């Protein structure tokens, strides 16, 4: 998967840490070596609160207890899911909106390694419903991620992205959406 473009500007790969696994099984088989069971269990309960709590204040309380950096005025949508293993790698700027049923991942379990990376969402950025953000991605201030998008690369400030994988929308496409 590594090639010369992995470290190109806008790519997340240079911000993702690689962790080798100790044996022949896929890396998810060794998750208890990466994180304590008690911590992941507590995280799971707090993720559940963040997903279904009816009030933003409760959601943001649960996110902060998970270790997420939560700015002022963050709106965490119903059923939105932060990373259960490494939520402390998520930073949400002020007035961020995370849409219904979206997922922010800070880890990838692969066959011979697992990877972790910070996800930073800038001030006033918006993540649409059912979007998935991969580890190491930075979403700039005032950026918008369309619903059902898979964000595999950085999103520059003020940019609207859509699709699988998410790509910048043209000015005409953005105007049609309004």
TrEMBL record:
Matching entries from InterPro entries are given as: Hexapep, Hexapep_transf_CS, Trans_hexapeptide_repeat, Trimer_LpxA-like_sf
Please give the residue ranges the record annotates as the region Disordered: 1-21, 157-178
Taxonomically, the superkingdom here is Archaea
Pfam families linked to this entry: Hexapep
Q: Key word GTP-binding present in the record? A: no
Keyword Membrane attributed? no
The record lists the membrane-crossing segments as: none
* GO MF, any single term: transferase activity
Tell me what this protein is called: Transferase hexapeptide (Six repeat-containing protein)
Q: Which PANTHER family does the record cross-reference, listed alphabetically?
A: ACETYLTRANSFERASE (PTHR43300), ACETYLTRANSFERASE RV3034C-RELATED (PTHR43300:SF11)
Q: Which UniProt keywords apply?
A: Transferase
PROSITE patterns on file: HEXAPEP_TRANSFERASES
């Amino acid at each position: 998967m590594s090639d010369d473009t992995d470290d190109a500007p806008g790519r997340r790969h240079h911000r993702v840490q690689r962790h080798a696994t100790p044996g022949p099984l896929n890396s998810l088989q060794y998750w208890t070596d990466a994180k304590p069971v008690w911590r992941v269990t507590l995280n799971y309960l707090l993720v559940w609160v963040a997903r279904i709590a009816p009030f933003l204040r409760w959601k943001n309380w649960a996110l902060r207890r998970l270790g997420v950096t939560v700015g002022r005025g963050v709106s965490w949508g119903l059923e939105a899911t932060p990373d259960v293993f490494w939520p402390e790698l998520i930073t949400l700027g002020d007035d961020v909106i995370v849409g219904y049923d979206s997922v922010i991942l800070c880890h990838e379990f692969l066959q011979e390694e697992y990877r972790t990376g910070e996800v930073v969402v800038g001030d006033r950025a918006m993540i649409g419903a059912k979007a998935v953000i991969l580890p190491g991605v930075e979403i700039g201030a005032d950026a918008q991620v369309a619903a059902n998008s898979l964000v595999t690369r950085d999103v520059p400030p003020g940019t609207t992205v859509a699709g699988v994988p998410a790509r910048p929308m043209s000015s005409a496409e953005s105007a049609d959406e309004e």
